Automatic annotation (TrEMBL):
Pfam families: TetR_C_13_2, TetR_N. This is TetR/AcrR family transcriptional regulator. Residues 7-67 form the HTH tetR-type domain. Residues 30-49 bind DNA. The keyword Transcription regulation applies. InterPro entries: Homeodomain-like_sf, HTH_TetR, Tet_transcr_reg_TetR-rel_C_sf, YxaF_TetR_C. Signal peptide: none annotated.
Length: 192
């Protein structure tokens, strides 16, 4: 098998693990579920993930974290703080609608049930959330917010959006994300 084929199988497995994590949480990301979803042969797991299920799950949450970090960075690139948060909300609205509200944030899913299932995940999840907050805080600081306030607002934005995603799934409605955007917007316009 060529190197491309091996990367393709590995990537399919990671993509499947991300989707399962988004829909079912860490407990739902089993080797059997990933193999069934990805169509990969059983031997692929230990070939691509010698650490087994935990390595696969950690790889999936890192991939998801990197993807969302890229969305945050791309949204922040324009320098307009309000537009940055608008783009994040639009991203999550699309993701929720596309999956009929079945899939939420894979990093939040991992944060909720990682300690017992994948103990190493706590550090990975913390690292991912910290990077998202730092990116947001840096954008806020570049837009005239004092460093401490930028940090607090970044925490508020991440927390509010993550909470709204959960509420959207529970209610099968995008309203909570709209509410968060309406209430956060004025805070992002005021400078210190």
């Amino acid at each position: 098998m060529s190197g491309q084929g091996r990367r393709g199988t590995r990537q399919r497995m990671l993509d499947s693990a991300v989707l399962l994590l988004r829909e079912r949480g860490a407990a739902g990301v089993t080797v059997d579920a990933v193999l069934a979803h990805s169509g990969a042969p059983r031997g692929s797991v230990y070939h691509h993930f010698p650490g087994g299920r935990n390595e696969l799950v950690l790889g999936a949450v890192r991939q998801a974290g990197d993807y969302i970090a890229a969305v945050v960075s791309e949204s922040a690139a324009g320098g307009d703080v309000r537009q940055m948060v608008d783009r994040l909300v639009v991203f999550w609205k699309r993701a929720l609608v596309k999956t009929d509200y079945r899939a939420g944030c894979p990093v939040a899913a991992m944060a909720l049930d990682s300690r017992d299932l994948v103990p190493e995940a706590g550090d990975v999840v913390r690292e991912i959330f910290t990077s998202w907050q730092a990116s947001l805080a840096n954008t806020l600081a570049a837009n005239g917010f004092a460093a401490q306030r930028a940090q607090r607002l970044a925490t508020l934005v991440v927390s509010a959006i993550e909470g709204a995603i959960i509420l959207c799934r529970a209610h099968r409605d995008l309203g909570p994300l709209d509410d968060v955007l309406v209430e956060i917007a004025p805070l992002l316009e005021r400078r210190d």
